[in-house]
Design goal:
The protein is of the alpha+beta class and 110 residues long. The protein has helices spanning 17-26, 81-94; strands at residues 5-13, 42-50, 67-79, 102-107.
Length: 110
């Protein structure tokens, strides 16, 4: 039976890029064709924006102030739900932000 494919997308400050990529790769994300390819991802430079509110403990910036951060958006394919779940768990542990910005999509073979 063919496993379902998922796409994990997350943003991360440039300084934590490699640590976060290795975290998701260690869960099996970015590996497909039965291991013929591994650590496969797509990276796009971007700028994130947020305002930390009362009670927040931001890794960068200050509560109540607009923060604009140079980041990288990473897109990585995951083969099987267990891989994407493990990749998200490891990403959350490795990422420097209090709240990790990530998205998971089920992919269709057409």
């Amino acid at each position: 039976m063919t496993k379902r494919l998922f796409k994990l997308i997350f943003t991360v400050p440039h300084t934590s890029l490699e640590v976060c990529k290795q975290a998701v790769f260690s869960a099996g994300a970015g590996t497909f064709m039965e291991g013929k390819y591994s650590e496969v991802c797509f990276e796009t430079k971007c700028t994130g924006q947020f305002i930390p509110g009362p009670g927040a403990e931001p890794a960068i910036g200050a509560v109540g102030k607009v923060v604009k951060a140079e980041e990288t958006k990473v897109e990585v394919q995951c083969v099987g739900k267990e891989i994407v779940v493990a990749a998200v768990e490891k990403l959350k542990r490795a990422h420097p932000y209090e709240e990790v910005a990530y998205e998971v999509y089920a992919m269709e073979d057409v």
